[in-house]
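Expect sequence, tokenised fold; for instance:
***
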Amino acid sequence: MRILDKYLLRELALPLWYCFDAFLMLWIVQDLLGNLSDFIQFHARLGQILHYYLIVLPQPIVQIIAPVSLLLAVLFCLTTLGKHNELIAFRASGISVLRLAIPLLAVGVLASLLVFGVNEAFVPNSQERAEAFMDALRGKGEKDVKENFFFSNPVERRDWYARRFNTQTGAMQGPVGVYERRPDDTEFRIDAETARWIGGGWRFYVARINGGPPVAETNFPSIKEPPRRLALEGRRPEELSSSELRRCIRDLQRSGSTQHIAEYQVTLHYRYAFPLTCFIVIWLGIPLGMHVSRRGPMLSVGVALLLVVAFYFMKSIALAMGEGNRISPVLAAWLTNAIFAMVGAVLFARVR
């Protein structure tokens, strides 16, 4: 690593640290104000509060805090260098804009890889775990218990519903409903007060079959979805990892059910597209920072905020169009990145 690279990275590190800390603290304060009454009312200990924020923080960090902090840090870094005429000195020494950009772009690549790892490992189930934590704190829920559980099995053409479902013990509390659409277009329905997974099969208690008289206990060997599968596939697309999303897409394709497949496909492609946001914001920030370097940091902040709003607005529109089958899932996930990457390329060409 050359002296120039070390110098640029050092100049970037300080504003990046400040921006990241500032946005992180703002998010924590905003969330704490919303949950403070619950923490006080239900006597939450400091360790419990810290545990809660360890659960919920990965999502805002990768989705908002990291990209915005990187963009602002690059703009502040280049603004400072421009203010002291260091950018002019670099260019006068024959150093190209692309050569100056290499260490900053390397940070973007590293940040994208880190965001992908965190987004894949911690984010999918963070919201569910946070809701379970708050329910347990309020005394309204238990760990591993899902309230108002619903699961649709498109392969077997079977829907499940339970008021409470313990994913560890495999116990459902009623009303419990299983509705199946058979190949001969007949319908089969079970309504029970409770259900349990015992010996590799489901047992239904105080059950009515197709509206008939109640049966104290019954089982159906054809109903064989284990609790682990129900817990996994009963989650929303954004709560699934990439491998789980691919599995759900395969199940939907085999069943011929295309009603909700676009939502899963868009989420899967977006899982790979979004981490590149960290690289793209730096790709945009470098030419913008050099352009506004003599006009003060406030202009940099204004430009950064405008870019962030435009990016997330366009991203929301593209994802909604993809989930609604207006455009392909691949285009929905990658369109925003492609547009802003091209904008950055044009800005780079103008700076050079």
